[in-house]
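If it is no trouble, can you show me the amino acids of a protein and the C-alpha cells describing how it folds?
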Amino acid sequence: MAKAKFERNKPHVNIGTIGHVDHGKTTLTAAITKYFGEFKAYDQIDGAPEEKARGITISTAHVEYESPTRHYAHVDCPGHADYVKNMITGAAQMDGAILVVNAADGPMPQTREHILLGRQVGIPYMVVYLNKVDQVDDEELLELVEMEVRELLSSYDYPGDDIPIIKGSALAALEGRDPEIGENSIRALIEAVDSYIPTPERAVDQPFLLPIEDVFSISGRGTVVTGRIERGAVNVGDELEIVGIRDTKKTTCTGVEMFRKLLDRGEAGDNVGVLLRGIDRDGVERGQVLVKPKSVTPHTTFEAEAYILTKEEGGRHTPFFANYRPQFYFRTTDVTGTVKLPEGTEMVMPGDNLKFEVELIAPIAMEEKLRFAIRILTKEEGGRHTPFFANYRPQFYFRTTDVTGTVKLPEGTEMVMPGDNLKFEVELIAPIAMEEKLRFAIREGGRTVGAGVVSKIIK
C-alpha cells in the first residue's frame, strides 16, 4: 500500500493529555478521535507500543486529528512513569496540553506533578477538561473543584484564572450518549484548544542553528561542516558564528550542499554541508554549533530537570550523591559535568526525577529547553552499582558531543539513586551553546545513565 502523503494545508500543533492515573486521559483521547479524526478505540490507544527516546523506553500512543483550522498530533501515555520520561526527554514535544481532572476526585498528586513537570520542561499552555461530571450531583462541588484546579495551575505560574475549563464526560462522548456532557463537551474542548493554544512559530522562522556532526576540508574550496539544520535557514553569503567548546568564531557561509547538489539555501530539517570562509579544518569540531550571530551563547553552569534511569532501563544499580560527575550528552557530544543536588536531597535513586544544578568542564551552546542525556564514565564499571554523591563528574551529551561536568546536588541531598529524578546544578569543563529547554543525556563511558533538560542558565 502506498504511503499517504502528508498534506500540509493546515498549521500543525503538537498536543497531549496529562493528569492523574484513571482520571480519563485515554478515554478522552479516544473520544476526540471519534469526532475529529480516524476513530481509535480505547484499547488501540492504551496498548501503545514501546519506543526509545534518548535510550529510554517509553510507551506513548500517537493519534492525529483535525479541527476546522488545524492539524493536531496528540500523544497519550499509559503509565505515570511514561509521562515523566516523555516530558523530560521531549520524546513527544508538546506545544500545549489538555489537563484531565476527574470532577469527583479533584486534583490528585500526579495532577500536581504533571503541572510542575509541564512548567519545568516548558509546556507553554494548558487547557483543562473536567471529566466525569455526571458523577457529581452538586453544582457547588463542581465549582469548588474548578476553583481548586485554577489555584493549583496559578501556584505553578500558569494563568489559572484565564485557562479554559471544559466540563464533560469523555465516556459519554465515546459511547455517543448525553450529547450535552458528551459530544458537545468534546467539540467545546477542541474549540478551546484551537483558540487558546497559539500556533507555534515554524522551525524555519526561528534563528538558524545547525549542530555540527562532521568536519572535512575540500582542497581549493575550504572547510565544510555537516549536520541537520535544527531550526531556521541559512543562505549563501550569511554571516555565522561557531559556538561552544572553544572561543566563538565568526565566519561566512560560501556554499550550501545537499545530496551532492549546490543550493542557495538550507532550511530546518535539511541534512546539509555548509562551506565556511576563513576556517581551517582544525578550527572547528563536532559538538559545536553553527548559528545566526548572537542568537545562542556558550555556557557551563545550568539548572536541570532530569530523570535517572532504573537498572531495568539500563541505568544505574545504585543511587548517586552530590558532586556526581557523569558525562552530559548535548545534541552530538558528551561533556563531563558535576551535579549539585538540591537542598535536602542527599542521594538520587534510579527511577527518580528531580531538579539539580550542573557545571560542565567545557561550555556548550545552550538555551532553556535544550535536552541532554546523562552517561557513565568507565566501561569497567559495567554501569553504576552505587549511588552518586556531590561532585559526581559524568559526561553530559548535548546535541552531538559529550562534555564532562560536575554535578552539584541540591543542599541536603547527599546522594542520588538510579531511578531518581531530581533538579541539580551542573558545571561543564567547556562551554556549550545552550538555551533553556535544551535536552541532554548524562553518560558514563558512552552508556546513558540519565536524561535531562536545561531549566535555567546560570553562567
The longest helix spans residues 139-155. Confidence is low (pLDDT under 50) at residues 1-7, 377-383. Residues 208-291 form a domain with the Elongation Factor Tu (Ef-tu); domain 3 fold (CATH 2.40.30.10).
